[in-house]
Each structure stands twice: as C-alpha cells, then as structure tokens.
Design goal:
elongated, TIM Barrel, binds calcium ion, 8-stranded parallel β-barrel, Immunoglobulin-like, about 20% strand, 8-stranded antiparallel β-sheet, alpha/beta
Length: about 625
C-alpha cells in the first residue's frame, strides 16, 4: 500500500495530476487513456471560440498521451478528446483540470503560483495535539454566510474568511471546520447566480477545482482558486483547520462527464448487463478498485492537501470505496502530514457492485487504521434512527441505554481506536436536532425540548470518539421539518444568527461543553487501551430508573487535572438520585447549565440529576 502511495505522489512519469503543466516557456499535456486509438488537445483563445487549435498527443509509457506546446500559453483554455471505434468522442476538460472556465466546461491554462494570496508561503496548519481533541463543525458556504448581516461576501468563500464568520467559530471553540462540497459541482449554473439557487453540491464535475459559485467571479479561472485559498488562510490564521467534503463515489453523470468521456466506463463499476452500478443512489458508482481510479483519488486528495493546504477529508459514501484504496490514501497523506484527517460515511446508499468484505464499510473500520467512520450507533442511541420517528435516550427512550453506553466508549467492536469513531447526532443529512426532537417528542414543552437538545449534544462531547457538530445547532436552527434540504431555498438552510440573542443560553451551553471537553483529557483518552483501563459504568441499583447512565473515568492522575470524572446522564422525565464515590468534586454541569470553571463544589453522597439533563463532576 505504501509503495502504491509513493508511486502516486512522487513518480512524475505517471502522475495523473500532470495533465497540464504550465511554465512561461512551454505547457506540457499528459492524459491517461488505455483505450484511445488517437488523442488530441484543442486549445482555445477564448471560451466562445468556434474551434480550437488541434494538438495531437503521442502515446507514451503506461498509456499516457503527451504533447508540449511552446510559448506562454497562460490565459488560454483547452479540452481533450479521444478517438476510438472509428469516431472522435466528445471534448472534456480532462479528469484533472486544475483551473476551469465558468461551469467547468473548459480547462484553463494558468500559473497556479499566481493564484496564491499574499502571505500564502507563510500559511501553516494550526497545531493539532491529538485526534480525539478534535471538535468538527460542519457547514455550507451559503448556510453560514447568507443571513449574517455583518458579512459582506454572502454565499462566497470570502464571506467565510470575514472576521464575524471566524469570530463565531472561535467563540464556540471548535478545532476543525468541515465544508460541504467546495469542489466544482454541476447543480448550480454559475452564469445565473443572481437567481439565488441553492444546492449542497454532491454532484461532482471537476474534482480538483473549487466551485465557481462560491467565488466573486466564476468566469475568471484564477479567482475561485485564489479566494478558496484566502478562506483557508484566514481560518488557519485563526487556529482553525479545514476539512473538505470529498465525493469520489459518483459523478454528476457518468459518460457525460470528464471521467466517462476520456475513457468510457473504466472509472465506474458496471453491471453484467452493461448498465452502471448504482451504490450511490445517484445513477452510478465509481470503481476505486480499478487501478487508475484509485490513483486518481490518491493524487486528488494529495493535490488539495499540498496546493490548498487542506487539513482533512470527509469521504461521502465511503462504503462504496474499497479498504485498500482508503489505506493507500492514508499512507499517501502521511507522506505530506500525518495530522491530516481522514474519515467518512461507512455506508452506501444502495448495494455497491463489489464484495462487501472488501469495502470501507463502518463494520470494517478497524481494518483501516486512522480512517474514521461516522457513528450512526451513538446518533441513533441518542435521538433515534432516521428511518423512524422514535425517541432516543436523550428524548426519553430508556431502551437505547446500552447502545449509548457503547457509543460513549467509541464502539470498540468496529472502531479500532477511538479517533476512528466520529461521535455525532446530526449533520446536513436528515433532520437537524431541533426538528428531530420536534417530530419525535412534539408534545413536550419547548423548555423540555431544549433540555433534550443539550443532553444529546453533551453525550457527544463527553464521548471518547472524535466529535462532530452540525453548524447552526448551537443557534437552535430549524429546517422547518425538511429532512433532506439539499436543494431547499436559503430560507430553510440558513443559520439563524438572530438566535444568538434569542437562544443565548443554548449557545453558551454548547460553548461551555466544548470548553469542558477540551479542558479534560479524561473525555478523550485517545486509545482503546486507555478507554478500557479508565472508563467504567457504575451499576444501577435494583429497580432503579433505567433512564440513568453513570459514566465514570477514573485513575486520571497524570492524565487530567481531575482525579476522576463522573458523568450522570438522565434521559428521563423524573429527577433521579445516585450515590457517587466519596470525594470532593467541582460541578461542571448540572440542570442544563454548564461552566468549565465550575458551577460549585460538592462532596460525596447522593447526587441529584434533574430531568433530561447531565450532571458532570470533576474530582478535585
Ligand atoms: Ca460548478
């Protein structure tokens, strides 16, 4: 696996990312195709030119077709096409275009160095001491920027880089910002942005170029690149790492897009009847098990990590990819920086056309060291499954108690190490937290629903896995009961900034809980061995309230400034009492309030835990 990664990232002879290499003296082209009988590049002065200048490519080693064009070609555009079975195929920008025209139709020849914002050479990844210290905040460029009156560049990368955007993340205390697809996707027409359409962006067109709709000028190929870098630079300067949501599992359309035009069918899994396999539920699924698709994915993530200084990758429908590919990606990123994160959805939408035992499914996470998977286990245990409207532990369902206890210790049966267990309750998919509690516990008062909200997020933030929060939950966002808002209008998807005042108590609670996690290593012991050694669940007495979990992290001398931590989670409507081990404690959370500096002191004895809330004690 390591040898493949090294080959992919260091052997210049066969790099897929060298499709177009610019210098002021010459531009060289190199395209891979194992099927073409002829290939040519067409060079255009303008994107509305009738016909490009045709350059024939020569077939060289390893099915790479190459040509060199002398002189300074910057500012021109190109496409590539291949000849097979007696005819020329359709033109495309190639599979590894690094700059494109509006809507990604033509590749652009540019000097990438000229896209670097001022000071880019000094941009460094913020420090990251340990993966379980991570608190990821997921958002979409439009969700986050459209409704904030203090932001000038609404819906743009530059808006994410503005001071009010960054300040909120710093106040909250998160470590990583995960951005919904920011590569060039197809569902938004970049020439009619003023029509205010919205899409999540899970429909890749050009994998290695930022989305034009998030730039201030999609018609200028350098603009989107520069502005994406400016966003990353500003976040890095604020101490926040940036995770990119990558969607290699399918493309917008199959043989209509560059992958299919360059080599029809090769990059996809096919059914026996010649139709496209569809594990993604989006019409096709890519074939990471095919050598050059695997190499494409490896080179693509390495390119984003090197050229854009991206700090992590969240793999959409990772269960469609094979384990060997994920391990090869991990090895290749380690060559750049081992602190770059890798995690994803350890499932597929439908059955992929590949042996289950070899896929990067959640169940096999332990076979992919330092590649994480979202834990639907802890999610479902806390708030209920997205496939029904049942309650979870945090909304009063005691039947989820055992499952939640397992989630708190990062589900060792599949995760391998705690960092490979992404603890979360909500993300862009399915209901946001407020709506989920609303559909499953509608008859409760708003006060109770807020208590359930805090309880659920608290369980995530005291769990031993890597933690993840959906942006806007801290401001009590609602999507008006829409559980799939991928193309809903801004009015549904925006983060409601006015709630920072209206629900200041909720925001402060999230902020304090993140601070409590970050202040106490006991909540992020970091290894399965340490979790097994230090975590215990205190048994309930006979006939005791099954809505209570008592999660204790003990023997923390030398690990944490607390000697032990006791977390009492009450997922029921009744107050409960429990005898904690004798000691002096600082109360960090109680009765839906939290304070990293302590709400007060108590000594041994019976602790009261209020309905739908968490009491957290740190032993002095
Ligand atoms: Ca686009």
């Amino acid at each position: 696996m390591l040898s493949l990664a090294l080959l992919a990232c260091t052997n210049k002879q066969i790099r897929m990312e060298d499709e177009c290499v610019y210098t002021p003296e010459k531009t060289t082209f190199s395209f891979w195709s194992n099927e073409a009988e002829q290939m040519e590049v067409l060079i255009y002065d303008e994107t509305d030119s009738q016909m490009g200048e045709t350059i024939s490519l020569q077939k060289g080693e390893n099915d790479f077709w190459t040509a060199t064009v002398k002189g300074d070609q910057a500012g021109k555009y190109y496409t590539v096409r291949s000849f097979r079975n007696g005819e020329w195929g359709l033109e495309s920008p190639g599979i590894f275009a690094k700059a494109v025209s509006v809507n990604g139709q033509y590749a652009a020849i540019i000097d990438l160095k000229a896209t670097n914002p001022e000071g880019w050479e000094n941009d460094v990844r913020p420090a990251m001491p340990d993966p379980t210290d991570i608190v990821v905040y997921e958002t979409h460029v439009r969700d986050y920027t459209m409704a904030n009156p203090a932001i000038e560049h609404k819906g743009k990368f530059l808006g994410m880089a503005e001071e009010p955007s960054i300040k909120h993340l710093q106040e909250l205390g998160i470590t990583h910002l995960q951005i919904l697809p920011m590569f060039d996707y197809g569902s938004i027409d970049e020439t009619t942005l003023e029509r205010n359409r919205y899409n999540w962006g899970y429909d890749p067109v050009n994998y290695n170029v930022p989305e034009g709709g998030y730039s201030t000028n999609p018609a200028d190929p350098a603009c989107r690149i520069r502005e994406a870098k400016q966003m990353i630079q500003a976040l890095h300067a604020a101490g926040i790492r940036v995770v990119m949501d990558v969607v290699y599992n399918h493309t917008y359309d199959a043989n209509g897009c560059a992958l299919g035009r360059v080599v029809p069918n090769y990059f996809y899994r096919m059914n026996e009847d010649g139709t496209f396999a569809n594990g993604s539920g989006c019409g096709n699924e890519t074939a990471s098990d095919h050598e050059m698709m695997r190499q494409f994915m490896i080179e693509s993530v390495c390119y984003w990590a090197r050229e854009y200084h991206i700090d992590g990758f969240r793999f959409d429908l990772m269960g469609i990819h094979d384990q060997e590919t994920m391990n090869a990606i991990r090895a290749a990123l380690d060559e750049i920086d081992p602190t770059i994160l890798t995690y994803g959805e350890g499932w597929a939408a439908m059955s992929p056309a590949y042996p289950y035992d070899s896929l990067a499914m959640k169940r096999w996470t332990y076979k992919m060291p330092r590649v994480g998977a979202f834990s639907d286990d802890i999610r479902n245990a806390l708030i209920g499954s997205p496939f029904d409207h049942e309650r979870g532990f945090a909304s009063g369902n005691a039947a989820c108690r055992e499952a939640l206890m397992n989630g708190l210790i990062a589900c060792p049966e599949w995760s391998g190490e705690p960092m490979q267990h992404v603890s979360y309750i909500t993300c862009h998919d399915n209901y946001c937290l407020r709506d989920r509690i609303e559909v499953s516990a509608s008859e409760e008062t708003e006060e109770t629903k807020l208590r359930m909200n805090k309880l659920a997020q608290t369980a995530v933030l005291v769990s031993q896995g890597m933690t993840f929060i959906y942006g806007g939950e801290e401001l009590f966002r609602t999507k008006m009961g829409i559980d799939n808002s991928y193309q809903s209008p801004d009015s549904i998807n925006i983060i409601p900034w006015e709630n920072k005042v209206a629900y200041a108590d909720l925001f402060d609670y999230y902020r304090q809980m993140i601070a409590i996690r970050r202040a106490h290593k006991g909540f992020r012991l970091g290894s399965a061995e340490a979790v097994a050694a230090h975590v215990e669940f205190l048994p309930l007495m006979e006939n005791e309230n099954e809505h209570l979990i008592v999660y204790r992290i003990k023997d923390l001398e030398g690990i944490d400034n607390a000697k032990s931590l006791v977390v009492l989670l009450n997922g029921g409507a009744e107050q409960v009492e429990f005898p904690v081990p004798e000691a002096d404690y600082t109360v960090l959370a109680h009765d839906a309030q939290a304070d990293v500096n302590g709400l007060g002191q108590i000594s041994a004895g019976w602790v009261v835990v209020e309905p739908y809330s968490t009491t957290i004690l740190a032993e002095n």
